[in-house]
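New to this. Please check both lines:
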Amino acid sequence: MSDSWGMSDDGRRRVLLVEDEEFTRTMVSEALETNGLAVRSVATVAEALASIKDFEPHAVISDLDLGSGPSGADLLNRIADETPWVGLVVLTSHASPELAIRPGTHLPAHVCYVMKAPTTLSIYVRYLCLYL
């Protein structure tokens, strides 16, 4: 999967994208790949947790509302606990996390919060590519 520098076999940084809306998942994935990142995109928390082990992402980008079942906040908290070196990004349409997560739930302290908007997304993709 990766060489001793932590890059993918083809020399790119790896990003796991977790988004239940197919259109958004496809658009974000293509934007990240166009900017030189290796992307695996999944729709559920279960798929994301399985991908963490074999894909070994440098960063995880997750929507907060993933439909029924565990939320993006649940996923990001588990990743923060189990693999704290992985960068965490929330990509959501909500202006505030309090509007998108269940009461009593929190986001990890070091999460980056990005709203889904065309201009914000393009700026974010460029920033992520520079950061990684």
Remarks:
- Residues 1-5 have pLDDT under 50 and may be disordered.
